[in-house]
Amino acid sequence: MPTARRAAHYNEMETHYYLYLGLALVSLFVVVARRPRRRHGLRLPPGPWQLPVIGSLHHIAGKLPHRAMRDLARRHGPVMMLRIGEVPTVVLSSREAAREVMKTHDVVFASRPMSPTINAITNGGRDIIMAPYGEHWRQLRKIAVVELLSARRVLSFRAIREEEVAALLRTIAIAAADSRPVEQGQQGAAGFNPPDLWPSSTLARWLSSAERRGKESRETVFRILDDIIKEHLQRLDRAAGAGEAEVLLDVLLKIQRDGALQIPLDMDVIKGVIFEIFAAGSETAATVLDWAMAELMRNPKAMQRATAEVRSVFSAHSTVPEHGLGELQYLHHVIRETLRLHPPVPLLLPREAREPCRVLGYDVVPGTTVIVNAWALGRDERYWPGDPDDFRPERFEASDVDFKGADFEFLPFGAGRRMCPGVMFGLANVELPLASLLFHFDWEAPGVADPAKFDMTEAFGVTVHRKPGLLLRPILRVPVPGV
Ligand code: HEM
């Protein structure tokens, strides 16, 4: 999901570190720090030493935050206190700590922190992803779960997915005929923005364009959506498109017209929800697909097994039908293993303590940002003994551990009240393309003689994706219909 919201949250930290450091020193005189108060008797979580103004930033700067936080947690423990600029932040890195926050005390941590940039982008959290816990969020979440992202709705888009994958396969088949490699690229901008690090500093806000850019990007998307909405409202008036799969926008417009909601759904909220779902749904699935292909290239035995399975299960077919995907056991293990090693949103989305609470014996004061390091959990030797960093889909053959939010060592979609409601939607967008790429083609990595050397460098962005583009040569094995 990450998501466009995350884009506003973290921003190419390495490049901006020195800028922030300079800013921090200047702001030393103007910042009113919002530290957790050390009230008598409180047992705050341990953490690394802090500097005035920048807090713990120097421990993270220049590194990928999920990796830096895992390394720090190894020294300071599974409930660790950082200060990101002036924002008190607790980082959780064990199954037990995650369970406390996402299950035992889920309701206490069911809100998200509202930074100035997030506030600008989401118009004060009026969409789903960053909405504060309360009636507005509850209503939108219910619409998302029941109407927009339900199994029935995901199924209704099957034909569209099959069409899109068929178009992708035709493009690749043409490249294969010319012996051309194909590339999947990813780009993302994300970051720690000064106003989010020092929300109380007027200077930080004044010097940064993050809030203005956030607001502008929202307005640009909303302007584009205005025309689309006009068209859809006219279609609804004419009752046109009957019998077609109902698009998500039409569902929301109909709910609005029904007027049966406790809090009326205004047009800005509809636009925000569409914007979020588009952002949350597209890049996350593309990132998983990219990592899965990269891991399979790096692990030829797993690639052979996954390819053999899909070709044998669909040997009587000319292409992969989505309704048969349930038969591909190994492919599902491949996707699980990819999500374990490469959760696209490695720190999930932040939560905020709404009330005083104790987590594994430590006090967490209201207003503290709480982060679950899902990436660290997925690579923790205690839960994945022996070879936590190896890609071994077979490990799921003898394991019931799943990503549905009940196993706190494996949380690519989060857990509890704020867990991702788009799991089925997201998986549907990974399974069919991956199975189809393996069914029709063998794959070679030009210029990579040793598969173990396949470049797996991570880049931080809207989601954590592979830094290099995925440059692969397809070799046609099963003809693609229509080429
Ligand atoms: C592989 C794909 C995806 C991954 C890994 C993913 C991951 C996540 C994560 C980690 C969260 C935060 C969970 C938490 O705080 O506990 C989240 C929230 C969310 N996701 Fe996803 N997501 C994916 C696909 C999707 C799709 C396809 C949609 C919609 C079409 C979607 C919509 C949302 C929404 C609306 C939220 C906010 C829920 C709330 O705050 O109540 N996601 N997602």
Automatic annotation (TrEMBL):
Q: Transmembrane segments in this chain: where?
A: 17-33
Lineage at the top is: Eukaryota, Viridiplantae, Streptophyta, Embryophyta, Tracheophyta
Q: Which organism is it from?
A: Eleusine coracana subsp. coracana
Question: Which protein are we looking at?
Answer: Uncharacterized protein
Keyword list, A-Z: Heme, Iron, Membrane, Metal-binding, Monooxygenase, Oxidoreductase, Transmembrane, Transmembrane helix
What Gene3D superfamilies is this protein classified in? Answer: Cytochrome P450 (1.10.630.10)
What molecular function terms (GO) are annotated for this protein? heme binding; iron ion binding; monooxygenase activity; oxidoreductase activity, acting on paired donors, with incorporation or reduction of molecular oxygen
> Of which family is this protein a member?
Belongs to the cytochrome P450 family.
Q: Which PANTHER family match?
A: CYTOCHROME P450 71D11-LIKE, CYTOCHROME P450 FAMILY 71 PROTEIN
Matches recorded under InterPro entries: Cyt_P450 (IPR001128), Cyt_P450_CS (IPR017972), Cyt_P450_E_grp-I (IPR002401), Cyt_P450_sf (IPR036396)
The cofactors it requires, by name, are:
heme
Binding positions (heme): 420
Which domain of life does this protein belong to? Eukaryota
